[in-house]
Amino acid sequence: xxLFRVSFYWNMQVNLRSFRQKVxxxxxxxxxxxTKLDKKSPKGLDKLTEKLSxxxxxxxxxxxxxxxxxTMSPTFTPKDIKRIAAHVQMTPKEFKEKWLEYDKKDNDxxxxxxxxxxxxxxxxxxxxxxxxxxxxxxxxxxTKKKFTEYIHVHKQNVEFCPATYKLVEKMKALEKDIF
Length: 179
Prior knowledge:
Helix content is 55%, strand content 7%. By secondary structure, it is mostly helical. It has 2 domains: 29-69 and 139-178, no CATH class; 75-138, no CATH class. Strands 1-2 form a two-stranded antiparallel sheet. Strands 3-4 form a two-stranded antiparallel sheet. The chain is globular, with a radius of gyration of 17 Å.
């Protein structure tokens, strides 16, 4: 049963070239729409997001994309660092020195490089999937309890994640019904 759900929901290949072209044409409009949602915060937005999310995942295959792993870095929490370092048989200090950099501005640990060192470039699979950072596990954060609390994240992700792009595009198509 689980295998069926995975194949049902993740059945559409992502063409990153086409996605980037769409982003160039529409990112500003979608970000403006998200700003409007943030300012007016219509009722039922979280329920709409929950309703649209399965539609989005029926159209996006993460493994054919992996654009998040290729172009972004998760934030590594101290708990993530400890767990992943143990998994790769390093101390947290060794792990940080080898793979991470500290962002003083945001007080975050981030990857030193893109694509992510744990991404298999041939299969787009994560070599530490079972112990991946919490930020990765929750990405792209589409169905967080309060959609409006993550609008700043969605504004960023709309340019990198086809699933976020599709969700916001679907919401924009329903704009007259939302407001």
